[in-house]
Amino acid sequence: MPLRLWRDLTPLEQPLRQPTAESPHILVIGGGVTGLVTSWVLLDQGYRVTVLSSAWVNSEKRLTSQIAGALWEFPPAVCGSHTDAISLAHSKRWCMTAYHVWDAIASIPVIGQESGVRMMPSDFFFPCPVEEDDAQYSKMMEIMASGVRGFYRGADLIDERRVDPSYGAVDAYELLAPIIDTDKSMEWLTDLVHRKGAEYVTETITEDLLDIEDDLRARFAADVVINCTGLQGELLAGDKTVYPIRGGLIRVINDGSDFPKVDAALTITADAVHDANEIVFLVPRNDNILLIGGIAEPQKRDLDLTLDSPIIRRMRERCESFLPSLKSARVDPDYPLAQGLRPFRGNNVRVERELRRAGSRIVHSYGQGGAGWSLSFGCAQDVASLVEETLRGVAPRSMKEMEEERRGTSVWSPVEIRAAL
C-alpha cells in the first residue's frame, strides 16, 4: 500500500509513533533529499534515527539536492532514459508514491509555503504526434492511467505557452506536477527531521561501508545502517557502475517585468529533434526565478562552468529559440548559474540490502540520478520495509527478486531474453 500523508507520516513536529528507549536505532548516511525523506519516514514509524552527513543545506556550497531542477516527472525523465527494466518498474511505482505525498503537502497552504512545494502545470512538447513515437505514446498512456491530476493533451498548448513552432514542437500534453523550491524545501526538511528527534552528526566517510560496518554500528549503537550518499555510492557501496552526469541551469528573473511570466514547467524530450544531451527544461523555481536548461554531460566531474562556457551559451540560445520571449530575460545577479553532478548508476536506482556478505545490516538507496525529489517518498517507503526485514532476520533479496515477488512473475532482462532465444 503506497505511503500516504497523515496515515503513514505527518509534516508536524510530533512523530506519528513515539520511539522508546528500546526502539531500534537507525544510522542514515547522507543529508540530501533521499537521506532526509528516508529519515522522516523512519521517525514517523517509531524508530530512533541518527543522520550522518559530510555537509548540510547551505547557501555557499549547495548540495546536489539544492541544485536539482526538482520538477516531478514520470520516468524515464527528459534528461535521459532508464536502461534497466527492473529499476524502471520500481521507479514508476516510487514516483507515484512521491507524487501523492508532495501533492498532499502542497494542498496545505501554510505547509506548502514553508516547504516550497507547489502543484503547477507541467507541459511536455513533442516533434511529432505522440502516437508516432511508441515509447512516448506508451509513457503518455501510463501517465493518463497513473492518477496524476490535470491531464490534458492538445497542440493548442504550443500557442498558449508562446512556444515557437519552428523549434520542432507539433504536439503536447500537460499535467499538474509538484515543483519544488529546493533551497527552501531542504531547509524545511532538515529542520523537520531534527525536530522529530533525529540526531545530526557531521562526518565524512571514505571507506566501503561493508569494511567498517561493525565499527559504525558499535560507535552509533545502530541496528541498521542506510546508505543514501548519491555519487559516494561508488566508494561506500563498492559500486563501480556509479557515475556523474553534470548538469547546469541558468537562473533568470521571472517577475513579469522583462518577459511574460512563465507559470508552467515547459520541456521537450531529450530525443526530440536536437542533441539528446542538450535539452529544453524550463521550470519556475519560485515566484520570481525561472530555471532554464539543461544539459547532461556524463562523466564530467568538474564544476567549472560559467555563463560564457560554450555549452551554457548554447543552452541559453536553445531555450530562447524554443521560447523567444526569453531573449529579454535577466539573469539572477546573486545566483546566476546552478551546476551540479547527478548521481547516476549503470543499472539505475538501487534500493536494496547489502548482498556481498551474509548477515550485513546495510540498506542502500542511491543512484536516483536527476530524480531524487521525484522518487523520494517511494524509495523511502521501500527502505523502511527493508529495514523491517533486516531486523526480523529475513534473508536479503536482489531488486529483481523483489520485483518478481511483487508481480508474482519472473522478470527477465533484455539480455536474458536474447540469450534464451
TrEMBL record:
Gene Ontology MF: a single term: FAD binding
Residues the entry annotates as binding D-dopa: 342, 370
Pfam families assigned: DAO (PF01266)
Gene Ontology CC: one annotated term: cytoplasm
Cofactor(s) for this UniProt protein: FAD
Source taxon at top rank: Eukaryota
Residue ranges constituting the FAD dependent oxidoreductase domain according to the UniProt record: 26-386
Residue positions binding FAD: 64-65, 229
Biological processes per GO annotation: D-amino acid catabolic process
Gene3D superfamilies, alphabetized: D-Amino Acid Oxidase, subunit A, domain 2, NAD(P)-binding Rossmann-like Domain
Entries under InterPro entries matching the protein: DAO, FAD-dep_OxRdtase
Signal peptide range in chain numbering: none
Keywords recorded for this protein, A-Z: FAD, Flavoprotein, Oxidoreductase
Family label: Belongs to the DAMOX/DASOX family.
UniProt name for this protein: FAD dependent oxidoreductase domain-containing protein
Organism: Pestalotiopsis fici (strain W106-1 / CGMCC3.15140)
